[in-house]
Predict the 3D structure of the following.
Amino acid sequence: MSRRSRKLEIFSWCAYDFANSAYPTLIITVAYSIYFKKIVAGGGGSADFLWGLSLSTAMIITSLIAPPLSAIADRSAIRKRLLLVFAAVCIAATLLLSTVGAGMIAWGMVLYIVATIGFEGSLIFYNAFLPDIAEPAHRGRNSGWGWGAGYLGGILCLFLVKPLLAGGFSPETLPLFRASFAVVAAFYAVFTLPLFFWLGEARPPAWPQAYGDVRLSGGRPSALLGAIAAFRSLWKTLRALHRREGALRFLLAFFLYNDGIVTVISFSSIYAVTTLGFSMGETLELFIAVQLSAGAGAFALGYLSDWWGERKTILLTLANWCLVVVVAYFTETKGVFLMVSILAGFSLGSCQSASRSLIARYIPPGGTTQTYAFYGLCGKMSSVLGPLTFGAVSAATGSQRVAILSVLVFFVAGGALLWTAPDGDDAESDGVLP
């Protein structure tokens, strides 16, 4: 690959992070989450539970469909196509969120679930491109560039929709509020175009290597035999990961600490509005500040990951997360919560960026997308437990402060497990899958 082609691929890969970050920023965190709680579900503790249930359902479904698709993607030239299909699903469902009105709980939940499946599913195939486009010595910084670009995209989209959201939930401004969801869909679609044009597809292995003897006379597998071969390939990849020292330990640690991160992202705006009395305008300003902090953290700690190591970088961010949760529990004023949120933002993208880079060290040959599918599976399954825990604790105690404190256990447990894991080594020299 020429230097220019590699730069174009890295740029287009980062551009997709720039594009898709509009969805978690505006839909999951800032705008639709509050709209669902206040308008669609009518407020109250049950609204927190319904929101957590929607996110958890989306993660469960994604967890079921992503692994077999990842095995097929590793054995055929469709990784990019699957990424674009899932992105299109998210964009279409996000556009339809603008049709959700007061009391339309089922419709609002279904669209949010479908959109989240599209968003989360695309990330598995997107993340799997990192080892292909980035040299091993630069994976940390390239991953950080992607996360940093994502936060810049989130900030830009926030500014674009701020006039639509500033009026809040008065009857005359609700149509404008809903229109912001359509803007998010358009933003996502437009900035996905560089990936469509410039990101290349890795060449798949030959059929005999990929599927063994599972072939038809024409050299192509049937749908049934191809599915069987895909699950066989998944099993081989899992066995290969089991033999790599620290690989499964890291995945379990990621399962735990990512649970805390997803929960904070999902409920932070609801916490700010409900517990601390932030207005919609103040909430937007809060998350613009968080996005700036997160982008800076992702860029800076991406370079730190290459120099100091991904595992140590993650542990540093987890220590910061524990501090953030404890301070947030005691916070009574908006000013203090703003400072805490900025501190949290610095660890937000950097923790996930370093995790995405670290898992590349455990990839068995021929199993890139599958490894990232298992990595994604841990992320999705962790995203089930945390939001449900927060929603259940909030509903049972009537206090979001107690609920936010419950997140601390995920950061502590994940950090303790990661502390015992080795840093990992790149796996290219280990031959083929057994």
About this structure: Residues 98 and 178 are 5 Å apart (CA to CA).
